[in-house]
Specification:
Layout: E1 14-18, H1 21-24, H2 37-41, H3 60-74, E2 78-82, H4 85-88, H5 98-113, E3 117-123, H6 129-135, H7 142-158, E4 164-169, H8 171-179, H9 191-214, E5 220-226, E6 230-232, H10 237-260, H11 265-273, H12 284-290, E7 296-299, E8 304-307, E9 332-334, E10 338-341, E11 347-348, E12 354-355, H13 357-371, E13 375-379, H14 396-415, E14 419-425, E15 444-446, E16 458-460, H15 462-472
Parallel strand pairs: 1-2, 1-14, 2-3, 3-4, 4-5, 5-7, 6-8, 7-13, 13-14
Antiparallel strand pairs: 8-10, 9-10, 11-12, 15-16
Bound molecules: 6-O-phosphono-beta-D-glucopyranose.
């Protein structure tokens, strides 16, 4: 629908930006921290672009004050960051490492003193290696108790200071990459295990959300889901069905569990037929149903377009573009379900991610219709090559990307969606898990590259000043 006049953003709207511990902090073994699965995975030859790792990253661990000062100047209302479990509990359980926890206490205090709302992500993929070794990490139900214990430490430490909490970041991504594509730790390809791991993660998520509510921690908690709205290639009913299949298997399969405590029926029927359905134990169903997130975090980068893909002779999985060479993504799909095809109506990035602001409006509308829950956009951004020229980065392509997405949010709010915040990915440039340092997302350029010997100097890009104005004016001009 077209509106003659758009709503304004609420006065307390959280204009923010986001990051994750492994991608920014560096200092992997300082002040008592021990290895996470990522500290080890990156050392396996061929796993990351040019063997990059987060040993230094952008050195946020030592430069957080400088970073927060730049955030303040930018006018950020909120900053979403993740806690490295291994700083707080180096072995994932046992005694608290107060020196590690202190880093986050300092960061939270610094943010609050500068008028910035801290938003904590409990888990952004850096599982303690000890727990992986002990019982296979997410493959065992033992993780539920350990995750709960870790979360409770953070709830108790930061209650009253931190009001917004993200439980799991992109459960759909870390389970898929870890157990289907083998591109993230633990690097396995096992569909049965994938669905079981995911079920255990659902139980852990529900347990922690319930605890947050039981303890009456002032504030709100929810998971962050990587939502890719699915389109059909055209009105051929088989292509429409392919899009429905993708939406069911890649979106409802997670969001329905968060919101209704139940897996969607068609997905479950298919998994049962294939012998892949997660094994429920007594109490699982009730637990999933009992947990209610206060908001749904959405990480939105792109939409996806689908065509029919026959069971016999259909295309299967393919690797994705981690090189930054446009057009290198190969056709991929799941026979009998769907095939992902290029959308001819949208532009794409050098990493072949489709640029589709309208897709964000569609995403917000779909979530609102199906779940009626406030949404926090916990990530949205453009990963591109940036060029530092005479001390400046003219990233007008990023400004265009972000501006069009902010406009889409405004339209969705006018349509009736409740959106409480917008967090760009990312604040500074940072390490992309699989794409090294060349794929940049930040408002602040950081002199760091694949040699990992950069000066780490921070330089605000043009987009930094654009966001500053947008925040000042509450996006009234968009
Ligand atoms: C999200 C993650 O999936 O996408 C981030 O939560 C990640 O951690 C971001 O960096 C961008 O992905 P990439 O692969 O372009 O770095």
């Amino acid at each position: 629908m077209e509106h003659k006049k758009l709503s304004t953003f609420p006065a307390d709207f959280l204009w923010g930006s986001a990051s994750a511990a492994y991608q920014v902090e560096g200092a992997p073994f300082e002040d008592g921290k021990k290895a996470s699965v990522w500290d080890n995975f990156v050392r396996i030859p061929g796993k990351t672009f040019k063997g990059t790792n987060g040993d230094v990253a952008v050195d946020h661990y030592h430069r957080y004050k400088e970073d927060v000062a730049l955030m303040k100047e930018l006018g950020l209302k909120s900053y979403r960051f993740s806690v490295a479990w291994t700083r707080v509990l180096p072995e994932g359980r046992g005694a608290v490492n107060s020196a590690g926890l202190k880093f986050y206490e300092n960061l939270v205090d610094e943010l609050i003193e500068n008028g910035i709302e801290p938003i904590i992500t409990l888990y952004h993929w850096d599982l303690p290696q000890s727990l992986q070794d002990l019982y296979g990490g997410w493959e065992s139900r033992e993780i539920i108790g350990d995750f709960l214990n870790y979360a409770e430490i953070l709830f108790e430490t930061f209650k009253g200071k931190v009001k917004y909490w993200v439980s799991l970041n992109e459960q759909n991504v870390f389970t898929n990459q870890g157990w289907v594509t083998a591109t993230h730790p633990p690097g396995k390809k096992d569909m049965k295990l994938f669905y079981q791991v995911n079920h255990i993660a659902n139980l852990a998520n529900a347990t922690v959300i319930n605890k947050f509510h039981e303890l009456e921690i002032p504030g709100q908690i929810g998971p962050s889901f990587a939502y890719t709205p699915q389109y059909a290639k055209d009105s051929d009913p088989r292509n429409v069905l392919a899009a429905e299949n993708a939406e069911e298997m890649y979106s409802h399969f997670w969001m329905d569990v968060y919101m209704y405590g139940e897996y969607p029926l068609a997905a479950l029927a298919l998994l049962r037929e294939q012998g892949l359905a997660p094994v429920f134990e007594a109490g699982d169903a009730a637990l999933l149903k009992s947990a209610q997130p206060d908001f749904l975090g959405i990480n939105y980068y792109q939409s996806a377009t689908n065509a029919w893909n026959p069971l016999d002779g259909g295309v299967g999985a393919a690797s994705f573009n981690t090189t930054g060479k446009k057009g290198t993504t190969k056709e991929s799909g799941v026979p009998g379900l769907h095939k992902k095809i290029q959308n001819p109506f949208v532009e794409r990035t050098n990493w072949d991610w489709e640029i589709d602001p309208e897709g964000l409006r569609i995403a917000l509308r779909r979530i609102t219709s199906r779940y009626r829950i406030p949404i926090m956009i916990t990530e949205n951004g453009l990963g591109e090559y940036d060029k530092l020229e005479e001390g400046k980065v003219h990233d007008d392509y990023r400004i265009n990307y972000l501006e069009s997405h902010v406009r889409a949010i405004k339209e969705a709010i006018t349509d009736g969606a409740t959106v409480i915040g917008y967090h760009t990915w990312s604040y500074t440039d940072l390490l992309s898990w699989l794409n090294g340092y060349q794929k940049r997302y930040g408002f602040v350029y950081v002199d760091q590259d694949e040699t990992m010997e950069g000066s780490l100097k921070r330089i605000p890009k043009d987009s930094y000043y654009w966001y500053q104005h947008l925040i000042e004016t509450n996006a009234e001009e968009i």
